[in-house]
Every structure is written in C-alpha cells, then in structure tokens.
Amino acid sequence: MIILPHSKFVLAGDSVTDMGRTQPIGQGLFNPHGTGYPNVIQGLLTSVYPDFFINVVNMGYSGNTSRDLLNRLERDILSLKPDYLSVMIGANDVWRQFDTPQIPENSVLPEEYRENLIKIVRLSKTVTSNIILMTPVYWESSLTDAMSARMREYGQIVREVSAQEKVLFCDVQSRVDRVLKHCNANYITWDRVHPNIPGANVIAHALLDTLEFDWKREC
Amino acid sequence: MIILPHSKFVLAGDSVTDMGRTQPIGQGLFNPHGTGYPNVIQGLLTSVYPDFFINVVNMGYSGNTSRDLLNRLERDILSLKPDYLSVMIGANDVWRQFDTPQIPENSVLPEEYRENLIKIVRLSKTVTSNIILMTPVYWESSLTDAMSARMREYGQIVREVSAQEKVLFCDVQSRVDRVLKHCNANYITWDRVHPNIPGANVIAHALLDTLEFDWKREC
Amino acid sequence: MIILPHSKFVLAGDSVTDMGRTQPIGQGLFNPHGTGYPNVIQGLLTSVYPDFFINVVNMGYSGNTSRDLLNRLERDILSLKPDYLSVMIGANDVWRQFDTPQIPENSVLPEEYRENLIKIVRLSKTVTSNIILMTPVYWESSLTDAMSARMREYGQIVREVSAQEKVLFCDVQSRVDRVLKHCNANYITWDRVHPNIPGANVIAHALLDTLEFDWKREC
Amino acid sequence: MIILPHSKFVLAGDSVTDMGRTQPIGQGLFNPHGTGYPNVIQGLLTSVYPDFFINVVNMGYSGNTSRDLLNRLERDILSLKPDYLSVMIGANDVWRQFDTPQIPENSVLPEEYRENLIKIVRLSKTVTSNIILMTPVYWESSLTDAMSARMREYGQIVREVSAQEKVLFCDVQSRVDRVLKHCNANYITWDRVHPNIPGANVIAHALLDTLEFDWKREC
Amino acid sequence: MIILPHSKFVLAGDSVTDMGRTQPIGQGLFNPHGTGYPNVIQGLLTSVYPDFFINVVNMGYSGNTSRDLLNRLERDILSLKPDYLSVMIGANDVWRQFDTPQIPENSVLPEEYRENLIKIVRLSKTVTSNIILMTPVYWESSLTDAMSARMREYGQIVREVSAQEKVLFCDVQSRVDRVLKHCNANYITWDRVHPNIPGANVIAHALLDTLEFDWKREC
Amino acid sequence: MIILPHSKFVLAGDSVTDMGRTQPIGQGLFNPHGTGYPNVIQGLLTSVYPDFFINVVNMGYSGNTSRDLLNRLERDILSLKPDYLSVMIGANDVWRQFDTPQIPENSVLPEEYRENLIKIVRLSKTVTSNIILMTPVYWESSLTDAMSARMREYGQIVREVSAQEKVLFCDVQSRVDRVLKHCNANYITWDRVHPNIPGANVIAHALLDTLEFDWKREC
Amino acid sequence: MIILPHSKFVLAGDSVTDMGRTQPIGQGLFNPHGTGYPNVIQGLLTSVYPDFFINVVNMGYSGNTSRDLLNRLERDILSLKPDYLSVMIGANDVWRQFDTPQIPENSVLPEEYRENLIKIVRLSKTVTSNIILMTPVYWESSLTDAMSARMREYGQIVREVSAQEKVLFCDVQSRVDRVLKHCNANYITWDRVHPNIPGANVIAHALLDTLEFDWKREC
Amino acid sequence: MIILPHSKFVLAGDSVTDMGRTQPIGQGLFNPHGTGYPNVIQGLLTSVYPDFFINVVNMGYSGNTSRDLLNRLERDILSLKPDYLSVMIGANDVWRQFDTPQIPENSVLPEEYRENLIKIVRLSKTVTSNIILMTPVYWESSLTDAMSARMREYGQIVREVSAQEKVLFCDVQSRVDRVLKHCNANYITWDRVHPNIPGANVIAHALLDTLEFDWKREC
Fold first, then answer.
1. How much is the CA Rg of chain B, to the nearest whole Å?
2. Predicted pLDDT of residue H219
3. Which of A78, C12, D45, E76 is most solvent-facing, going by the fewest CB within 10 Å?
4. Inter-chain contact B145–A146, Cβ cutoff 8 Å?
5. Which residues on chain B are in Cβ contact (under 8 Å) with D101?
6. d(Cα G163, Cα G157) in Å, to the nearest integer?
7. What pTM does this model have?
8. What is the ipTM of this complex?
C-alpha cells in the first residue's frame, strides 16, 4: 500500500464525504467519520493494517462546491498538515445548475471548476505531494441524462488536471458505472448523489485500489 | 366545475398525497392538508369558490402500495362517505422493485396492481360514483430509464381500468412530461417521486382540469 | 406576464409574508418560502412558467412595521438586488395600536407610515423600477370595526403613495372583501390578520393579477 | 359568599376554562389550574378566604362542545362529586359553524344546544343543587357581526335554561361588553375567543360576583 | 388609584417577582408577566381599569440580591423610564446566609443591604418620584426560626429606608402573616420563599392596597 | 454487620427513597439507585464490603403514602423476595394534611397510618424476618411548628410498631435533629422534606448504624 | 461464495450485532443495519456482489443472553424464514457474571449455555440447514484475565456444538486475537465488548471468510 | 481532620473528577458536584462535619490531560483562591496513547507529565500550601496489561513529585488494587477508567484518609 505507517490521511470533499462526520475535525474517538466512504476507508485501513495507526481525517463539508473548498482549504485542510490528501469535489458545482437554475451564483461552471481544482492542487502541494483527485459521481449511467453528461464533463476535467499536475487520479465514476450495469440506481441512492452504505463501499474500494490496498494482507 | 357545493372530496394515495397531512384525518383547522397537491387543491377550491364550502380530505398514507390502500379502503376512506374520491396510487408498487429488489414481498407486480385497482374502484362505487383515477408519476421523461418505463406501464393500467370501469381518468404523467420538456427533473424533485411545491401545483392543476375547475371564475 | 425570465422577485413584508420562511434568505431548496402567499406565488410561477426560472425570494420578517422594514431595507432587501420587488407592510403598524395600546412606541401612526413607505419606494428605486405596493389587509369587512377602518386608512395611503411615486398598486384588501361577501372571516383566519392556505391564495391571486399572470398559459 | 368552607368547586367548560390545566384532574399542587379564569378564581378564593380551604377543580377540556361535555359529564365531572359546579360551554358549538362550515357534524345547532344544556343540568342535579350556568362569550360587541350575534343567541338560551331549571345564571357576555366599551377586543384577545390574563379576570369577576364574593373581606 | 392612565409601572425584584416572565423585558403580548404577583397586578389593573392602558413591566430577575439589582438598575430598570417603580428585594440577601453559608460572598449583610436600598432609591429618583419599597417575605410566622427573624430584620430596614427617603412603603410581610394565622405555610409554598398563585395574590393585594386600588370600581 | 454476603436488601419508601431511581426496579448497572440515601448505602456497602456482593434494590416510589405502599407491597416489594427490607414511609401521609388540606382524601391520619404499618410488617414477615422500620423525617427541629410536631407523632408510631412487632427500629429523625443543632435546615433542604446529598448521607448513616456497619473495616 | 443470489441472510445476536439497527426488523431502506459488523457485511455483499440482491437482516437485540435468544427465536428469527442464519451470542451470558455478580439470575452458566446453543441450532434446522455459529468475543488477549478466560471457555463450547451439530463454525475470537497482537484493545473498544468501526470490520471479515467471500471478485 | 472550618477545598482533575458537575464552577445549590468522588467527599464532609461549612468545589474537566490542566490552572483553579487543593490528573495523558495512538499530539509522555505536575504544584503554592497530589487510576490490577503498567508509571511520578515538592500524596491506585483483590473490575467500571458510585467511594475514602477524616466523629 502506498500509505506509510503513522501518517495522516485527510479526505476533503462535500456531503458525499461528510455524511455526518464529527465537527470541527472528523477524527478521534466515538466513530467520528460519518456514514460515507471515509468510514469504510477508516474501517478497512485499521482492521487490515492494525499495526499502521493511520490517522484518517474526514474533512468533507456538506454543500461545498469547488469554490467553497478552495476558500476554506488553507484554514480547514492544509492547517492539519496532511501526509496524504484526497479531494472529491464537484457534485454541487454541477447539481446547482439543475436543481436551482434560478440562482446561478450558487453553481460553478466548468472553466472555474478547472481553475479551482488547479489552485487546490497547487496550494496543497506546499504541504504534501501525496494528492489524489477523485471524480465527482452521479449514480446514473445514461449519457442522455443532462446532469449525468454534465457530471462526466467535470470528471474529465479531474482526469486532465490530475495528469497535468501529476497527482494520483481515482476514477470513481467508472467504478460506479460498473456497478450500475448490475443493479438499478435506486438500489444505491434515491437522489443519485448520496449513496447508501453499499454505495459508500463502492467509492471506498475505488479509492483503496488507487492506494494499492492489499485486501488479503496477512498480519 | 364538476364538484357541487357542500360536498366532501377525499383524496386517497401514498406519500405524494400525504406529505405530512394531519392524522388520522386530513381535514379541519390548522392547515391539515400537508404540503403536497391536496394543499394546492384545497387552497384553490376555497379561494376561488369561497361560497362552495367543499370539505377537502387528504387521506394519503406514506409508503402505501395499491395492496395497502385496498386493505385500508373500507376503514379509512369509504367510512368517511366521500361525495368525490380521487385515487393516486402505484408509485411504491413500482419503486420497491428498484430500491429494495432483495425484498420482493414489498412490491406489487402489474397483474396484482390491475386487480387491486379494480377492487378499489368497485368497492368505492358502493359509496360514490364520482371517482377519479390518477396515474402514478415518475419525474423522469426518458423511456430508456427502467423505472420510468415501468411507471408508465402502471399508468397505462390506470387508463385501462378507468375506461373499463367508466370512471374519470386523470393523466398526471403526461402533464409532468410537458413540464419536463422545459426544465430538469432536479428542479422539481431530488428523488423523482416527491415533488416540491411547484411540482405539487403541476399535479393539482392536472386534477383540477379533470374536475373542470374555472380558473377565471368571478364571485 | 410582466416578470421576465431569469429574474429575481423579492417579496418584502411582515409575518403575513414570512409565515415560517427559511432564514436568513427565503430562497433555494427544501421549500423555503413558508406557508403564506409567497409559497403560492412560487408554486404557480414555476409550475405555469417552468421555462422562466424566476427566483422568488421571501424576505418577510415577522412582527415588522414599516419602520422596521425601512431600517433593514438596505441590508436585507436591496442588497439582494431584486429585479422585482413587492412590499406588503402596515398590518403591525395598525395592530399594535389596538392590541398593546399601553406601549405606544411599538406602533406607527399614519403620517410616519406614509413617510416610511415613500422612503422605502425611493430607496428601492435605486435598485429596481419594478416595484409593487400591496395594501395591508384586515380580514374584516365591517367598517364600523375600529381596526378595520384604520387598516383601510393605511390601505388608502398605499394607494396614494403608489400613484404619487408611479409604482404598481395591488389592492389586496378589496380582493379580500370580495371573498368575505361569501364566507365568514373565521373560515380563513382566527385573528383576522394571518390567513390559512386558501387566504394565502387570495392574496397571491391579487398579486398575480397585478403581474398579469396568465392562468391558462400553454407551455 | 355562597360557597361554604371545605367544599369542592368544579368548573366545567371548553378551552376557555382549560387553558393548560393539569390532566386528568385540574387540582392539587404545582399550579394545576392553567392560565384562564379558574386560575384567577383559585387565586382569589384562597388568598381572600385562606380559612375556607375550598378545592377548586378545573375540568375544562379544549375543543369541547356541549355535546362533548354531555358525553363526558358522568365520567369526568359528576364522578368527582362536586359541591358546586359551574358550566361555561357553547363557544365551540358556535365557532365551528363559522371556521369549518364544510364539516357540519363538528358544530352544534341551537336546538341541540338547549337540549344538551338541560340534560347537563338535570344530570348534575343528582349530585349537587349548586349549579351556575355561564354564558359562552365572544369578545366582539358588534351585533352586525354574524358570529357575535350567534353567540348571544346561545347566551340567551343559557339564560332561559337557567331560569327554567332554577339554577344560578352568570351573564359573562354582558360583563365582557362593558369592558369592550373602553378598549378594543385586540387588547384582550386575538381570536375573540381566548382572552389573555386580564380577560380571564373579567370572566372570573363575573363568576365571583354571582357567588357573592366579598372583595374587601377582613380575615 | 394613585396610578394615572397611560403610565408605565415597572416592578423590580428577584425570582418572587420574575416567576418566568418574558426576557429581556416583561411586557407586551403573549402573557409576558410570569406566574407571580406581577401577573395578578397586570390582570387586575387591566380588567378593572380597562380604560387606563397602564403598561405593567415585570423586571424581576431570578437569584438577584440587592447588590445585583443595584448593579443592573441603570441598564435594566431606569433605562425603561418608569412612571412608577416598585422594588421587592432582599430574599436572596438573607437566604444565601442559610442555604450556602459556605459561600459567604453570595449573601448580603444588613449594613450593605441598607446601603444598596438607599442607592437604589436615590438613583431611581432621577427618573421618577413614584417609588414603592416592598418588604421581602418569608412564609414563616415563627420568630424563633432564625431565617424568619433575619428576614424581618431586613423588612425593618425597608421600612426605615422608605421613611427616610420619603417613598411609599408596602409591608408585604405583615399581610403574609395575617394569612398564615389561618393556614399552614405549606399550603402556599414548599420552600417558604416562592408562593403559589394564591400567595402571589396575597402579595399583589398588599401592593394594590398601597396603590389605593379600587376593587369595586364601576366602569 | 448484620447483612450477610450475597443477600438482597430492598429499600421501600417514598420520594425521599426514590430520588430518580431506575424504573421499574432500582437495581443493576448504570447507577440505578437515584441520588438519595439508597445511593449512599449502595456506595458504602460495595466499597467497604467489595467481597459481599450485596444486591441493594431501591424500591422507593415518589408520592407514596403508607396507604399506597401497602397497596403495592405484594406486587412491587415482596415479589422481589428480599432478604432484608427497610421501610421509610409517612412523610406524604403528613405533608398532604398541610399542603393540600382542601383534598383530605390525599392524606393518611395517624390511626390508619399505624394500621398500614402493622399490615406492611406482617405481610413482609411472610418473606423475611429482617425488617427495619425507619421514621419519616421533617428537617425542622422546632416542636412549635405544626407539621414538625405532626411528623414526630408519626415517628413515635413507627417506634411503637417496631417494638410491638419486634423488628429493627431506625430513629432517623433524632439523627437529623443532631445535625440541625449545628446548621440551618436550608443548608440541607429547601422544602424540609427532600434533602441534598449531605442530607442523604445523614439518613444513610443512621440506617448503616442500625445495620452495625463497620466504617473502618479492613479488607 | 457460499451464499446464493436472491437469498435472505439473517444475523442473530446481542448488542454487538444490534448496534442501533432498525426495529422491529433490521432490513430495508434508510441504512437499517446499525453500525456494527452486519453493516459491514451488508456493505461488502452488496458492493462486491451487486447482482446477487442478498437480503441481509440484522436481528441482534441488545442485552440478549443465549437464554433470551432462545426465547425469541421462533417469533423473531425463524418466522423470517432465513435461507442463511448466523448466531453470535454469549457475551452477556459471561459479562453479567462479572459486572453484576449480585444478581446471579441475570447471567447464564456454561452448562445452560451449551444447552441453549444446541436448542437454538436444532430449532433453526427446521427452517434452514445453512447455519453459522460464531464465538462471542472479548477484546482482551490475556488469559490471566478472569473474564477473558471465561469468554474463551464459552467460545470452546461454540466450537464443540458446531462440530457436534454439523454447522459452520466461525472463530471470531482468534481473528480478534490476531489483531490484538498489533494494537492495544483500547484502540478498538473501551469496554472490551463493543468494538468501533474497525473492530466491526474484524468481526465481519471473519464471518465473510467463513462464507468464502471473494474480495477480488470482478463483476 | 486536616481541613479547617469555613475553608474552601477545590478538587482539580479530569472526567473522573468532573462526572457531570455544574459549569462553570462546581459549587453551590442543586447538587453541583456531579456523580464522582467529589460528590462523596462533599456528602461526607458536610454530614459528619455539619458545623464546618467547608466549601467543596469540583473543578474537574472532562478530557483534561496534565497539559490542559496546566493551561487552565491560573484562570480556572487558582483564581478561586482555594485553601486546599487536590489534583488527580494523568488518566488521559496515558489513555490517549492507547485509544488514539494515531493522534500522538493528544497524549502526554512521562517526561512532560512530570514537568506539568511540578509546574502545577509550584504555581499552586503561590495560593495555598495545602496541596494533595492523587495518583491517576486504572481499574486493572494486572501488571502485564500495557496500559495498567503505564498508569502505574505515572502514579510513581506523582509519588516522586509529591516527595520532592513536599506536598501530601494520596495513593489511590493502591486503594483500588486492594478492592480488586475481592471483585472483578467490571463490577466497578466498564472502561476501567470511570468508576460507578461504589468506585467513587473507594477514591473518596483514599482521599479522606489522607485528610485524616474522622469517620466516627460525634457532633
């Protein structure tokens, strides 16, 4: 696995990351990681690598767009001095274009999204070089769905920024699409954005594979 | 308008009808009609026909399938002796096939749905001949979406039963589709089943048109 | 209709407007418009004009007099940069003269009311020329009732200021009186100030008529 | 004063009597009499007659009509074996005719009201001969107001039944009208039915005068 | 009665005055006067003098000693510009000497109490000359009880300061003692400090007599 | 100490015993003994005799008189098969005579109290011979106080019944009086019935002395 | 994997299984599986086998001993007609011997535990032959700890009953011990019985290995 | 006893001291000392020495390490001007090394612990010379348990600092070990840190013995 023992792994994002995590910092005792993919990450990292003592810190914040995340990056994320940093952002940048089109200032268009992402990566590099960019996800495989198509456009931007900035890329959307071949989206999520526990596992497994997690490790 | 002064109009259904109505009977003081289409119906009937004193009674019950509604029809609906009765049921019959396919006993398949509808109509006729069957609705216009296609299949059964049993038919789905030509489904509903206030208006207007409501009435 | 697509329509007022709207701004997701006439406005504007994407913003504030509204106008209302602005204020200016006469500083007398209204209009004109002044309403048609007579006196001031300042005038009181010819005030409101849902429709329809809303629009 | 030491005085009625009294019996420790006129009665009887130890029992029940009171008379009121019994009922018999005319079974018309009152008195006489009938009250002095006129019609029935059945009569409405000559109804009550503390005093003073309470008693 | 129409009457004190009054100012709508003697005062002043429109303001504050009241006098009491001001303070000055003798800084000894009272009166005179000093009360008539004897010592100081400063004096304790000749203290209060509703009437009547209230006034 | 290892010790009584114990049985995990003297008993028995594993069971019930305790004795107390049983009852038998004299059926007079106690003892003897009767307590040493004198009259009955029925007698009142020589009653209790923690220790120590508890035991 | 598509898998147990699952049946929508190992099982089964639609049902019940489970087996577990049934019981049978030794009827001794297990297995076989017995677990590896030694004694009984009754055996304790070689018990659990999320993963992985779950399955 | 009449005794510590005490200062009325050993101390000091009027002040703060206590010493503890000061700190310094080893900044290592203790003592000496240092406690007697061994290492530091700084030393751990010879740790505490009421007595008795408390004092 890429992550070294006794390191700090911070997961930044929106409500898909947050999912009820402890405020102000999603670490510590009393199940602080919420009920989303960070909880699965923490559960697996600690149970399979009990000798690694990795500090998984959930810093998702419900409702965040890339613009919001950029604004709080210094204060909320980088001040924690992560050794590893994952970023899964963009769902709200897209969603607001569809659920509240009458309030255009609430959403973030592709050009700004790309700029925000680049700024997030470059600022983060001052603290760590271990950065993973994850695609935002829409639990809908049809490309004729307007919001589905739009989310993939943003996922493509994540891919391009990852390559350009030379950071790890995690294609969560394609993992999700693989699952949706077998079951209906309603089996995982009612709003196609916030998944249930199995859906959180799907996202977590995508991230763990990027981290070269060893599922069958003996310890 | 079809509805006569001083009559009782009962609206039966599932959570799309219920929407937080007063228990056990959705009538009376203190805004008892919840926040869905019955609330719009009541608001418009009373404000435009203030001399009619129509008793609008919301008897939606969250989670109901056609099987559940049939089971409680005598006790909950017919015992109220409605002069007019609308029935909008079937969303959960379909939804459970997609969100909890691992629990097949929770959903209702087309054949049983048709039978349940027919029984509902025939039992209701012992109390009133003024019956309106409304299609269940999925706020998704793509026919390639499996659940969307399935919901229309159930809507078609409503149409056929209405014709066969000679009761009024209200095609809510086609009204919804007309709206979705202009805006994204997320603008109205996040889960494509429970609409917001504008969506409740869309359903209500469909029903009011069936009732030959006079929008420009002078009084 | 007067209102153009993609515009912002702010509704200022007191508790008759507020009715439990979302704080600090009555816009966005999750039914933010409370249960009064703004909710009806939003429901009808969006369901009948789904292609217009009008941002209806409820900025009513419970307990406000015209003095309070003037004090928060800049900060709460004009800072939102409305394209259209409706103002329905004055009920508390009058009511406090009758329910707490022992605290005279809580009410606003006619002369000050007129001045407040004029200031509100003139300040608002720096942001938009699309202003609608609505009469405050008392759900009592008897002119021998002291508070009813007083409220009409304030309604007359609204009419005069509208004419003088050349802004749209919405005579809600006369619409209300038309309804009260057919039903008792207790059918709509217990305190003759806060109406139930049908009463909210009456106010909303008065405002929509002023806006030349097309009830039978095909889209 | 009419009431003898160490006796039990039960006050029956609707929400105007109830006003948050302790359930199931409005007697005992911890201020059990609610915030209406029974609380004033209890406060004055005990402070001015501290040597009388009168057990004041509030048995008002919110929402009751004369029909409801008759139904629970045996179980709730007479089973307590009152030495004195006051009855103030009828406001809801009237109110429901005006606030929910669409549900006629919720109100009580004059003929039934008279019969209910007579039955209440005759049943009560099997337990005590000390019965006081109080008029229901509407805090509106205009006789051109339909509900005001209707309430006085019911008050007249109370007067007639009292005379016919030879029990004490307490004309609360005329006491209220005397106060309304000096101040607006909104100073006492927003809905013209439920008074504030001063209004509770007005009702209590009317009842105490009927009981020949000695305000200036030395003890 | 001493109090003139349209005047403001502020009642300062501790928890015996406060009794759950509205914060920050005990005036206005929605029964703001708590459940102690100010509520009785307000009820009687308004019901018997409905044409006087006296603004009764409860400014009691639970736990206050004379030291605390002096500290907040300017900010909380005098800033309200009372036309009439009653002060009932001292119960906590005494009580803390008996219930928490291990924390001597929480109580106020006689000499400081006298000084505090004098300062309160003199400061208040800059705003109004209509001041009533009321004795603090202990619902225990035995003089062999140490706290009872101590409270009377403080009551004597109130009497002396009233005479010296030429303000009205209200001897609540002697009124209380008159009642305790007829009934046990537990009938009125469990802790001998906070009375129930009848006890609140006893205090209120003492104050109303000082104000030359006319119980039998015709209006 | 009298109590043997591995035995069950049930404490019956009223609110002085109850003090918020776990329902329906005051034993087990999670500090089930409330905040009164049973909690002190349990704390000391287990900390000083950690090898005895005595099951202390608090079966006090707030508001109980001896009549109430007798009524629930079989069902609540004896069904637990206590090895040791203490009974501290009577405070409410007396108190109700003073705080609600207007409801005489709520209190228990001396003759009935004696009979209730005898019945309680004799019924209990069918289950255990280890019975301790404790005096009810009033935290007031003056015998000129009517309720204080009355409570001692009941304490004397406890003493007589204990002697007559040959069960252990615990004179809590004299222990309390010894403390009140040194400090004011308000230091321990505001209502002279429910003591604070130190007062709970005073009662507990009286009971432990009766049980020949060894404070300085070495283990 | 042993489990077939479209089957029902019921997990019976105590609070380690329950962990806040939905009542009365831990299945369905809205994350019904609590926060313990059933949640991990459900997350992994559905995310890795999305085409299997296995109905995972959490029927743990906090506080249960083997005696309690046996008592409710028919009604709560077998009535659900499981295709697969896992049983993890015994922690409370042991714990009560150590935390409440003064209440011996609350715990279950080894001989009864064995009998209860055998009865549970044999009754279950009438419904399914796919039964997995899991050892109860104490998160303490020292055998000199009395409760740790006792829990292993019960684990050995589970092993023996599994062999004798020819059902699957899952040795959770040895999996736990493997983890405790690497980290302190406090890292996983404060009371050594209820693990946090990583500890829930450890239990789940033990069970999944028994079920021959394929971690690297491609779908 | 060492403590003199009318003095103030402040108990500083972590959650073992805090146990729900009143904020911001654990003194005064309404049982302010929480449910831990300070409550026992207060109960015994006041019941056995009712003439001493000692002000017991609980200033424990949940979660505190010695580092946290040092940081708030001036503001929270010394500002109260204690006559006697006990300090029981260190449990969290140790615990965090075992329950959240992945967050090393949350724990305090032995060298810093010693320095913190010395600073706490020396700063406190500027206010009082009556200082008692108490060992932190782990309710586990096995020395092979890593956290148990570590806690004793910290206890040894307390002993050394006490001797070096010439303040009173209270060896709570050895008192605890004496109890654990007779009963299992689960009988007193589930997490081996927070004891139940009997465990609170064990700690309190250790402290009272250090203070030369006279259990059999006559007063």
1. 16
2. 75
3. E76
4. no
5. 53
6. 10
7. 0.94
8. 0.95
